[in-house]
Specification:
Blueprint lengths: L1 H12 L2 H11 L17 E2 L2 E2 L4 E9 L4 E8 L3 H10 L6 E2 L8 E7 L2 E6 L2 H4 L6 H16 L6 E6 L29
Parallel strand pairs: 7-8
Antiparallel strand pairs: 1-2, 3-4, 3-5, 6-7
Helix pairs in contact: 2-5, 3-5
């Protein structure tokens, strides 16, 4: 049901992504898009702590609202992926997924569910530009988390509670799957 509601809003908001995201990209006085986490709690994947360096794939939306991937050096687990997402895109044509100042407080995998807890800046800086802007924020979180082997859904919380961003059309009380936040990949 939730996926059908999101898809309905997508049809009306396709061009809204460019309009909604453009102001965020042009604010010269804005602080850096995101900061990497300073928390020291290791992420767990299947009960083990991952610390080996490697590569991680993260996703960001472009101005057309399509997903593009970037491969980063880092810890190839959920925490490493979320920290890379919080650091923002390297490609200047891509849009930061997380609102300015958002930190990853924790990122853990329990079975096929990823739990991502973000700082208050996620909720307070959440986009008000409609469904396309929301998908450009939540879509990359879900795409990045579900790129981790075994992860099928993502529960997003803010400081341990269900976020309730003003004007959201998404239901954060349930985990998201890629079908809930469909974004086309860049071809």
């Amino acid at each position: 049901m939730r996926a059908a509601i999101v898809r309905r809003y997508l049809a009306a908001a396709a061009l809204g992504a460019v309009v909604a995201l453009a102001p965020a990209c042009s604010d010269d006085d804005a602080p850096p898009a995101t900061t990497a986490s300073t928390a020291t709690t290791p992420a767990t994947t299947g009960g083990s702590t991952a610390t080996a360096p490697g590569e991680v794939t993260v996703y960001f939306a472009n101005a057309e609202g399509k997903l593009a991937s970037e491969t980063r050096e880092g810890t190839p687990d959920l925490r490493g992926a979320m920290d890379a997402l919080a650091a923002g895109p390297e490609d200047p044509d891509l849009v930061a997924a997380l609102p300015a100042g958002t930190r990853v407080l924790s990122a853990e995998v329990e079975g096929s569910l990823a739990r991502v807890d973000l700082s208050e800046e996620f909720e307070s800086g959440y986009p008000s530009g409609g469904a396309a802007a929301e998908l450009a924020t939540v879509g990359p979180i879900v795409a990045t988390a579900t790129a981790i082997p075994g992860v099928e859904s993502v529960a997003i919380t803010v400081e341990g509670r269900v976020p309730q961003p003003t004007g959201t059309q998404l239901d954060f009380s349930m985990p998201f799957t890629p079908a809930d936040v469909p974004l086309e990949p860049v071809s």
